[in-house]
C-alpha cells in the first residue's frame, strides 16, 4: 500500500507535529490526498472536468460553482416561464434525485449516481431524463417539502409520495409510470401539511404546521399497491396538557412567537441501524424524539422543552453585562441537524430592550440516550447578526443550515454563510433580484444548493477545487467528523500528516494512529487498508486476553490522555505531539480537548468495527474488559477536569506538589508542577492518595484536634465531589461501555479504578480516608456544624467504597468466587456502617443500609429506636429481598423469641402473614405459638410434644413443653386424648424422677444444678443406685426399678434390673447378726425391703426378682458367694418372698 508523497518524505519535523491550520493550497493538495485517490478520473464530483468548472460567486475564501450536469430542459423551461404568482420550490435528495414543484407540476430528475464504497464502480452515465407528475388538486400552493422521491430495495426505478397541503396523499410506485398511482386522504381535521420526511423502507413522516405527525407507508400485496397512514400519538399538547401558565413556570417564559402558537420548525430523520430510525420533531422550543422500527410499534423516547436552555445561553454569552431580566430575551429555534450522538440546533435571539440586533448560535444537545437532555452540551455564538423588524421578522428568522463535517452552512433565499472553526464567517450573497435559493442538501460530502437562475450549485474553498474521483470526498470537509467536537478547532490531530506517520513509524501503535487520522480526514479507504493490514490480513483477529488489538487500543488511549499541549512552547523539548494534543494555552481547555479526542477515537473504533472485537486486557493484575479500561480513561479525564475547576485551594495545591517531585519539573522551560500534573491524566489517582496521606500525617502530628478535623474536612471537599462526578459519568455511560458478549465470555472482572486496591487504585486510599474522617474528624469535631459536615462526608466516602464493591460483585456473579466474595462484602459492608450506628447517627446509617441492603444494620436501628413501624415499612419495602425472613432469624439468633411472639399477635394484620408462617414452619420451637393464635390446639400440642422429646438441653424447658402440650391437647375440641395424656403424664413423671435426685449427687457427677440438662433414664437409674447417694433407701431403689419402664431395649432393661438388685445386696452387711433368726436379719436388708415394698405396691412377683443363679453370677458378689451363711440367707429370702406370694 503506497501512501508516499510526491515530495520529499522526511524532514527535520516530526510527522506528529501538527500542520498549519490554514487551508491547504492547491500546491499542497497532492501531499494530503493518498496516492490511492490521486488517479485521474473522467468525472469529478460534479461530473465535469476541472477545466469546465463555472464559478458563479466568489469571495476571498470560498466560491459558488455549478454542480453536476446542466438541468433538464423541462426544469429550465418551468423556471423560466413560470408565472410570477405561481410558487416555485425545489428539493434535493441524498439518494441522487432532485425535484421542482411549480403549481401542480412535479418535475423529477437524477442529478448524480449513488456512490457505494468498497464496490467496483462501473462507468455510468447520468440519465438526463426528466419525469413529470401531476400533483393532487389543492386550493393551497404545493411545495417541494411535501414530496419525497426514493428508491426502494425491491426496485431500481424511483418511487414518489406527494401530499397536498390539505392532506391528500398520492403514491407513484414508479415515476416512470405516471398513470399508475394510489391515493388516500388523511383526516387532519383542517390542519395544513408542512413537510414529508423520508425514513427509508418504512415510508415517510408527514408533519403538519401544528405538529401532528403521521406515518405514511406504501405497501405491495399480491401485486396491488396501497397506502397506510397512521397518526403517531403524542401527549396532550406539547406539554402534556399543562396550561401555558404552568409550563411558563416550569420551563420559563416563552417568546411571543412561540406563545402565540407552537409551530413546526422541522422534522429530522436519522438512521440508527439497518432497521431502526430516530425521528426528531422540533416545534417552537419543544423537541420530540421517536424511535421507529418495522418490527415494533413506534416509541416516543422523550419530549423536552429547550426554551430555558436557549434563553440562558444567549443571556450569559451576549447580554450578561447589559443588565435587565432574562425574560426580556426572545429566542427562536430555526433548524435542526444531526451530528453523530448529538443534534445541532440553529437558534436566534433578540433583546429589544437593548437593541434590535439579532444574534445567532449553534447549539449542541446530546440526545443519544433515552433520557431527555437536561442541559446544553455546547453553545457557540456566531459572528453574524441582523436587525429584527417586528413587521417582517422573516428577514432575520428564515435561515436554515447544513452540516458538512466540521463546517456549517447557513443559508436563506439570498445568501450562504460558511462557518469554519477558528475563522470568521464568510458570506456569499446572491445579488440578482431574480435569483434566490430554493433548497439545500449534502451530496457526497459537498454542500449543494438549488439556485433559481443557476440550478444546482456547490460551495467549496478556493484552494480546494480539484479534479477528484467520484469515489473521493471533499478534502476541506471531513465527512464523518463531528461539528460539535471540532468547532473549537484546538485538536492537533486534524493537522497531523497520516501519510508521514504511516511511512515513518512501522510499529502497530503508530500504524493504528495513522488509520485514526485517515479516518478523521475522511480518507476511509486508506484507513480500512491499514486496519486490514494490522489485524485482518490473516483472517479474523486474535480474540482473547491481551490480544494485539486490545493492547494497542489501550496504549493509544493512555497516550492520548498524557499527550503534551501542542501550542505551549514550554513543552517543545519534552516529547512529540500526540493525537490528544491541543493548541490551547489553557490547561482546562487542553483537558477538554483530550476528552473530545478520546470520543473521536472511540467513534473511530465503532465505525471501523473494531469496538466489538475488543476483548480483555490485564490491568492491575486483574483481567478487565477492554472497553471498561477505555471507560476508565474517560473517567480519569472527568476527574482531572473536575479537579482543575477547583480554584485557589491550598490543600489541593499541596497534594499536587507532593505528587510532582521537583526533579520532574523542567523549571528551565518555565513549567509549573500543575502543568506537569494536569498533563499526566492517567496518574490522576495519585492526587487523591496524597490528599489522604497528608491527612494521615496530620492525624499523627502535634496539630490540635480542631486543625486535624478541618484538614480532613477540606480534603473530603475536594475528593468527594470529584469522585461523585466520576461515578455519575460512569452510570450515565454504562450502555456506551458495555462489553460485547464475546468479551464477557472470557469472564473479565469489573473492578473500577476507584475500587481497586494497590498503588494504582483508590480502595486503600478511600478506606483510610473513611477511618480518618470517623476517628479524627467527626468524633472529635468541636461544634455541631463541623460534626454534621464530617458525618455527611463519612457517608459519602462509604457510599463510594460500597458502590465500587457492588460493581465488582455484579461482574463475578455466577462464578466460583461469588459466594466467598459476597460473604466478605457483607462483613466489610457492616463494618463500614457500624461506626455510624455506634455514634447513634441513625438516619445516616439507615441511608447506607437501605441503599446497600445491610439488613442487620436496619434491624439494629429499628430495635435501638424501638420503632416497629419503621421495621414494618422495611419488611414491605424489601419484601422481595427476604428482609422479613432475616428479621425472624435475627430474633432467634439474638435470643429474642418474645419479639417473634409479639409479631405473631399482630402479623395477621400485615401482608407478611404467610412469610412468618413459612418461617415458623421451619422453626417448630416457635410455630406452635402461631398455631395457638390460629386456634389449632391439636397441631400445637403435637409440635410441643415433639419438641419436648427432642429437648436435651434444659429439663425445665422440656417440662414446660410437655405441660403446654398437655394443656393444648386438652383444649383441642372433639378428640379422644386419653392415650395422649397418659403418654405426657409418663414423661412428666420421668422429669419428676430427675428432680428428686439430690443436688450433691448430681454435682458429684458434674451435672449443672442451676440449669439442669435432660438426663436419660439409664443415667437416672445409676444416680439413684450409686454409692454416693448415701441416703438412698428402698424408696429410691424402687424409683430406679420404676425407671426401667422408660428403657426400650429389653436386653439393656434386664441388665439394669440385675444391677439394681446386686447394688441393693451390696448395700448391707450380710455376715453380721444372729443366724438363728434369719428372717430378722433379712427384714433389715435393703434387698428384701425393696422386694417387700415392690410387692406392696403391686409389682408382679413372678418377674420381680431375677433368677438366683443369674443374680449371683457376677464378680462383685464373688466374696459373698464364698460364705455359706450368705447363701443360706439369700435362699431363705427367696423362699420367704415366695411364701409371701402364695399368701397374697
TrEMBL record:
Domain spans labelled Nucleoporin Nup133/Nup155-like C-terminal: 808-1005
UniProt cross-references to Pfam families, sorted A to Z: Nucleoporin_C (PF03177), Nucleoporin_N (PF08801)
Composition bias, Low complexity: 1-19
Places the protein is found: Nucleus envelope
Gene3D superfamilies documented for this protein: 1.20.58.1380, 1.25.40.700, YVTN repeat-like/Quinoprotein amine dehydrogenase (2.130.10.10)
Residue ranges constituting the Nucleoporin Nup133/Nup155-like N-terminal domain according to the UniProt record: 70-372
GO biological process, one term: poly(A)+ mRNA export from nucleus
A single GO cellular-component term on record: nuclear pore outer ring
GO MF entries: structural constituent of nuclear pore
InterPro entries, per the entry: Nucleoporin_Nup133/Nup155_C (IPR007187), Nucleoporin_Nup133/Nup155_N (IPR014908), Nup133-like (IPR037624), WD40/YVTN_repeat-like_dom_sf (IPR015943)
Region of interest (Disordered), ranges: 1-23
Keywords: mRNA transport, Nucleus, Protein transport, Translocation, Transport
Keyword flag Iron: no
Similarity section: Belongs to the nucleoporin Nup133 family.
Protein name: Nuclear pore complex protein Nup133
Organism, scientific name: Ignelater luminosus
Amino acid at each position: 500500500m503506497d501512501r508516499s508523497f510526491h515530495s520529499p518524505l522526511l524532514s527535520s519535523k516530526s510527522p506528529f507535529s501538527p500542520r498549519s491550520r490554514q487551508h491547504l493550497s492547491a500546491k499542497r493538495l497532492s501531499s494530503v490526498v493518498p496516492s490511492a485517490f490521486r488517479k485521474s478520473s473522467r468525472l469529478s464530483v460534479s461530473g465535469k472536468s476541472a477545466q469546465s468548472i463555472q464559478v458563479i460567486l466568489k469571495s476571498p475564501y470560498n466560491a459558488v460553482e455549478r454542480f453536476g450536469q446542466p438541468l433538464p430542459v423541462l426544469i429550465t423551461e418551468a423556471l423560466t416561464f413560470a408565472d410570477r404568482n405561481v410558487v416555485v420550490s425545489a428539493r434535493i435528495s441524498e439518494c441522487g434525485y432532485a425535484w421542482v414543484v411549480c403549481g401542480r407540476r412535479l418535475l423529477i430528475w437524477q442529478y448524480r449516481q449513488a456512490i457505494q464504497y468498497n464496490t467496483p464502480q462501473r462507468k455510468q452515465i447520468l440519465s438526463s431524463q426528466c419525469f413529470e407528475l401531476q400533483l393532487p388538486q389543492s386550493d393551497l400552493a404545493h411545495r417541494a417539502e411535501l414530496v419525497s422521491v426514493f428508491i426502494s430495495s425491491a426496485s431500481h426505478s424511483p418511487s414518489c409520495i406527494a401530499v397536498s397541503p390539505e392532506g391528500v396523499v398520492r403514491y407513484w410506485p414508479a415515476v416512470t409510470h405516471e398513470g399508475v398511482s394510489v391515493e388516500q386522504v388523511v383526516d387532519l381535521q383542517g390542519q395544513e401539511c408542512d413537510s414529508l420526511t423520508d425514513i427509508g423502507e418504512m415510508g415517510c413522516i408527514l408533519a403538519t404546521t401544528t405538529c401532528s405527525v403521521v406515518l405514511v407507508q406504501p405497501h405491495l400485496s399480491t401485486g396491488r399497491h396501497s397506502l397506510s397512514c397512521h397518526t403517531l400519538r403524542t401527549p396532550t399538547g406539547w406539554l402534556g396538557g399543562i396550561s401555558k401558565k404552568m409550563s411558563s413556570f416550569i420551563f420559563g417564559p416563552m417568546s411571543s412567537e412561540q406563545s402565540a402558537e407552537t409551530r413546526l420548525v422541522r422534522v429530522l430523520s436519522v438512521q440508527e441501524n439497518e432497521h431502526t430510525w430516530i425521528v426528531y420533531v422540533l416545534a417552537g422550543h419543544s423537541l420530540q424524539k421517536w424511535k421507529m422500527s418495522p418490527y415494533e410499534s413506534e416509541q416516543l423516547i422523550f419530549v423536552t422543552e429547550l426554551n430555558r436552555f436557549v434563553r440562558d445561553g444567549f443571556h450569559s454569552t451576549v447580554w450578561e453585562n447589559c443588565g435587565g431580566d432574562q425574560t426580556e430575551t426572545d429566542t427562536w429555534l430555526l433548524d435542526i441537524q444531526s451530528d453523530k450522538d448529538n443534534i445541532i440546533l440553529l437558534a436566534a435571539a433578540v433583546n429589544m430592550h437593548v437593541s434590535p440586533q439579532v444574534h445567532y448560535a449553534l447549539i449542541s444537545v446530546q440526545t443519544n440516550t433515552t433520557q431527555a437532555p437536561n442541559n446544553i452540551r455546547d453553545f457557540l455564538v456566531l459572528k453574524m447578526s441582523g436587525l429584527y423588524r417586528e413587521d417582517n421578522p422573516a428577514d432575520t428568522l428564515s435561515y436554515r443550515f447544513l452540516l458538512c463535517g466540521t463546517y456549517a452552512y447557513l443559508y436563506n433565499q439570498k445568501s450562504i454563510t460558511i462557518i469554519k472553526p477558528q475563522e470568521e464567517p464568510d458570506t456569499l450573497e446572491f445579488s440578482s433580484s431574480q435569483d434566490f435559493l430554493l433548497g439545500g442538501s449534502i451530496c457526497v460530502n459537498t454542500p449543494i444548493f438549488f439556485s433559481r437562475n443557476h440550478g444546482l450549485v456547490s460551495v467549496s474553498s478556493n484552494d480546494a477545487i480539484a479534479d477528484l474521483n467520484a469515489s473521493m470526498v471533499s478534502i476541506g470537509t471531513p465527512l464523518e467528523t463531528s461539528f460539535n467536537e471540532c468547532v473549537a478547532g484546538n485538536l492537533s490531530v486534524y493537522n497531523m500528516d497520516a501519510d508521514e506517520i504511516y511511512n515513518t513509524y512501522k510499529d502497530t501503535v503508530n500504524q493504528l494512529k495513522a488509520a485514526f487520522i485517515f479516518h478523521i480526514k475522511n480518507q476511509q479507504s486508506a484507513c480500512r487498508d491499514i486496519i486490514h493490514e494490522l489485524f485482518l490480513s490473516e483472517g479474523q483477529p486474535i480474540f482473547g486476553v491481551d490480544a494485539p488489538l486490545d493492547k494497542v487500543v489501550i496504549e493509544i488511549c493512555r497516550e492520548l490522555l498524557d499527550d503534551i499541549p501542542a501550542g505551549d512552547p514550554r513543552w517543545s523539548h519534552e516529547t512529540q505531539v500526540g493525537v490528544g494534543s491541543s493548541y490551547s494555552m489553557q490547561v482546562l481547555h487542553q483537558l477538554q480537548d483530550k476528552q473530545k479526542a478520546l470520543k473521536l477515537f472511540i467513534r473511530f473504533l465503532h465505525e471501523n468495527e473494531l469496538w466489538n472485537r475488543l476483548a480483555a486486557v490485564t490491568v492491575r493484575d486483574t483481567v478487565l474488559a477492554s472497553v471498561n479500561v477505555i471507560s476508565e480513561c474517560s473517567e480519569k479525564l472527568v476527574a482531572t477536569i473536575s479537579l482543575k475547576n477547583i480554584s485557589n485551594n491550598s490543600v489541593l495545591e499541596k497534594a499536587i506538589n507532593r505528587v510532582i517531585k521537583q526533579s520532574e519539573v523542567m523549571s528551565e522551560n518555565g513549567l509549573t508542577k500543575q502543568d506537569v500534573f494536569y498533563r499526566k491524566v492517567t496518574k490522576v489517582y495519585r492526587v487523591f492518595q496524597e490528599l489522604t496521606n497528608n491527612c494521615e500525617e496530620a492525624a499523627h502530628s502535634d496539630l490540635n484536634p480542631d486543625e486535624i478535623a478541618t484538614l480532613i474536612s477540606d480534603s473530603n471537599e475536594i475528593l468527594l465531589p470529584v469522585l461523585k462526578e466520576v461515578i455519575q459519568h460512569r452510570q450515565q455511560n454504562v450502555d456506551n461501555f458495555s462489553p460485547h458478549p464475546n468479551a464477557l465470555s472470557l469472564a473479565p472482572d469489573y473492578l473500577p479504578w476507584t475500587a481497586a486496591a494497590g498503588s494504582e487504585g483508590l480502595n486503600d486510599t478511600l478506606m483510610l480516608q473513611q477511618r480518618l474522617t470517623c476517628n479524627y474528624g467527626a468524633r472529635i469535631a468541636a461544634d455541631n456544624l463541623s460534626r454534621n459536615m464530617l458525618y455527611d462526608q463519612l457517608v459519602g466516602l462509604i457510599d463510594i467504597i460500597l458502590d465500587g464493591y457492588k460493581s465488582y460483585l455484579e461482574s463475578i456473579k455466577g462464578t466460583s468466587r461469588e459466594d466467598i466474595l459476597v460473604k466478605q462484602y457483607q462483613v466489610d459492608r457492616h463494618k463500614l456502617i457500624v461506626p455510624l450506628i455506634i455514634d447513634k447517627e441513625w438516619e445516616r446509617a439507615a441511608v447506607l443500609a437501605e441503599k446497600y441492603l445491610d439488613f442487620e444494620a436496619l434491624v439494629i436501628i429499628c430495635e435501638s429506636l424501638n420503632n416497629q413501624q419503621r421495621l414494618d415499612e422495611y419488611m414491605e419495602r424489601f419484601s422481595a429481598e427476604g428482609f422479613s425472613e432475616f428479621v425472624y432469624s435475627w430474633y432467634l439468633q439474638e435470643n429474642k423469641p418474645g419479639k417473634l411472639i409479639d409479631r405473631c399477635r399482630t402479623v395477621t394484620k400485615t401482608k407478611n402473614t404467610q412469610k412468618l408462617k413459612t418461617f415458623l414452619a421451619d422453626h417448630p420451637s416457635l410455630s406452635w405459638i402461631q398455631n395457638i393464635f390460629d386456634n389449632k390446639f391439636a397441631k400445637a400440642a403435637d409440635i410441643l410434644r415433639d419438641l419436648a422429646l427432642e429437648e436435651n438441653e434444659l429439663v425445665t424447658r422440656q417440662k414446660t413443653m410437655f405441660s403446654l402440650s398437655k394443656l393444648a391437647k386438652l383444649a383441642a375440641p372433639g378428640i379422644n386424648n386419653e392415650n395422649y395424656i397418659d403418654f405426657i403424664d409418663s414423661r412428666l413423671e420421668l422429669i419428676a424422677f430427675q428432680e428428686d435426685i439430690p443436688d450433691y449427687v448430681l454435682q458429684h457427677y458434674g451435672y449443672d444444678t442451676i440449669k439442669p440438662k435432660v438426663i436419660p433414664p439409664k443415667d437416672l437409674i445409676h444416680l439413684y443406685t450409686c454409692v454416693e447417694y448415701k441416703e438412698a433407701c428402698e424408696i429410691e431403689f424402687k424409683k430406679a426399678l420404676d425407671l426401667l419402664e422408660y428403657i426400650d431395649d429389653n436386653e439393656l432393661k434386664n441388665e439394669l434390673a440385675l444391677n439394681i438388685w446386686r447394688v441393693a445386696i451390696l448395700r448391707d452387711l450380710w455376715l453380721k447378726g444372729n443366724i438363728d433368726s434369719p428372717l430378722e436379719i433379712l427384714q433389715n436388708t435393703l434387698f428384701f425391703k425393696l422386694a417387700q415394698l415392690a410387692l406392696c405396691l403391686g409389682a408382679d412377683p413372678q418377674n420381680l426378682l431375677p433368677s438366683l443363679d443369674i443374680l449371683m453370677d457376677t464378680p462383685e458378689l464373688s466374696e459373698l458367694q464364698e460364705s455359706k451363711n450368705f447363701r443360706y440367707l439369700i435362699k431363705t429370702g427367696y423362699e420367704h418372698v415366695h411364701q409371701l406370694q402364695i399368701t397374697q
